[in-house]
TrEMBL record:
Description of how the protein assembles with itself and partners: F-type ATPases have 2 components, F(1) - the catalytic core - and F(0) - the membrane proton channel. F(1) has five subunits: alpha(3), beta(3), gamma(1), delta(1), epsilon(1). F(0) has four main subunits: a(1), b(2) and c(10-14). The alpha and beta chains form an alternating ring which encloses part of the gamma chain. F(1) is attached to F(0) by a central stalk formed by the gamma and epsilon chains, while a peripheral stalk is formed by the delta and b chains.
Gene: atpF0B
Family the UniProt entry places it in: Belongs to the ATPase B chain family.
Membrane topology designation: Single-pass membrane protein
Source species of the chain: Serpentinimonas maccroryi
GO cellular component: endomembrane system; plasma membrane; proton-transporting ATP synthase complex
NCBIfam families (alphabetical): ATP_synt_b (TIGR01144), PRK05759.1-2 (NF004411)
Function text: Component of the F(0) channel, it forms part of the peripheral stalk, linking F(1) to F(0). The b'-subunit is a diverged and duplicated form of b found in plants and photosynthetic bacteria.
Subcellular compartments: Cell membrane; Endomembrane system
Chain segments annotated as transmembrane: 6-26
Coiled-coil portions: 44-107
UniProt-recorded Gene Ontology molecular function terms: proton-transporting ATP synthase activity, rotational mechanism; proton-transporting ATPase activity, rotational mechanism
Family matches, as Gene3D superfamilies: 6.10.250.1580
Keywords: ATP synthesis, Cell membrane, CF(0), Coiled coil, Hydrogen ion transport, Ion transport, Membrane, Transmembrane, Transmembrane helix, Transport
Descriptive protein name: ATP synthase subunit b
Length: 156
């Protein structure tokens, strides 16, 4: 065979091979590569979108944490104010109660002093009558001299 004819036949076979490859093999490969490139682009876009959403979610979480911290600080301050108020009310009630107890004790002490004075007056009057009886050497009738004894009690 001739070198030119072999080269020419190989060129024709190569041309047919290139045409067959371009017509039947290359389009499915290009399609698969395009689909793969599209999937990768979609994945990158989804990744960027997820990063943005994550950033926004982190911001929302920080805002919510800040709000909850402020709210808890506010509640704690309210609780402390309420505790102070309760303590002040308890102190006031205790002061009022102690004043009532003191007044009752003073009133009771005055009554006891009054009773003691009355008993002392009666004893002094009795002693005075006994002393007068001994001085006069006769018995003094207490019922007869009740007016005199009452005046004597009042003077004591």
């Amino acid at each position: 065979m001739n070198l030119n004819a072999t080269m020419f036949a190989q060129a024709i076979v190569f041309g047919i091979f290139v045409w067959f490859t371009m017509k039947f093999v290359w389009p499915p490969l290009a399609k698969v590569l395009d689909e793969r490139a599209q999937k990768i682009a979609e994945g990158l876009a989804a990744s960027e979108k997820a990063k943005i959403e994550l950033t926004l979610a982190n911001k929302r979480v920080e805002e919510e944490l800040g709000k909850s911290r402020n709210e808890s600080a506010s509640r704690l301050a309210d609780a402390e104010r309420r505790a102070q108020q309760i303590i002040e009310e308890a102190k006031q009630r205790a002061t009022e109660e102690s004043a009532k107890i003191r007044a009752a004790a003073e009133a009771e002490a005055e009554q006891q002093v009054y009773k003691a004075r009355e008993q002392l007056r009666e004893q002094v009057a009795l002693l005075a009558v006994q002393g007068a009886e001994q001085i006069l050497r006769r018995e003094v009738n207490a019922s007869v001299h009740a007016d005199l004894l009452a005046r004597l009690k009042a003077e004591l």
